[in-house]
Amino acid sequence: MIGRVWDDGAVAEGDEPAVPDRPDQVDVDSWPTGRLLSVAARVVEKRFEDFLASRGLTHAGMITLHHLADGPRSQRELAVLCRVTDQTMSRTIEHLDRGGHVVRSQDQQDRRRTSVKITPAGRRALAAARREERESDTLLGAVDDYEHFRQQLIALIAAATSTRD
């Protein structure tokens, strides 16, 4: 159970934070912006995770494929770009490899390194995920101007994470 939402948007004690199934179930117009962002993030993330899972992907795998779109990278470089440990990246690459989304090989210039390359199946999965994000009415396709919305989110994150002197 996700949790019971009361008319004021509060969550019943002991329940997990609520995510309404339908906007008309709760008076979201009265919610503060922070709560709207939080609920929207959870709803979109869950639906996107379901979409990815139906294609044998995870969110971590999607991010990894994104970083491989421009060409092969070392496993270490991917870990840094994805901001995860080498062990976590190793598991992600193993999952992507089993699903046919990437291939691994020994780096020709340094045999101690593993090079990872996206496959045609991986490119198709990445393209489908990007389309789903932009065009699906259940994800961000419901936003009138996707690029403007994206830029606003980037600005919000940058402002919220900048160090204040």
TrEMBL record:
Record domain HTH marR-type: where: 30-158
Pfam families to which the protein is assigned, alphabetical: MarR_2 (PF12802)
Entry keyword Protein biosynthesis: no
A Gene Ontology molecular function term of the record: DNA binding
Record's protein name: DNA-binding transcriptional regulator, MarR family
Alphabetical GO biological process terms: response to stress
PROSITE patterns in the cross-refs: HTH_MARR_2 (PS50995)
Domain of life: Bacteria
Keywords: DNA-binding
SUPFAM superfamilies: Winged helix' DNA-binding domain (SSF46785)
Keyword hit for DNA-binding: yes
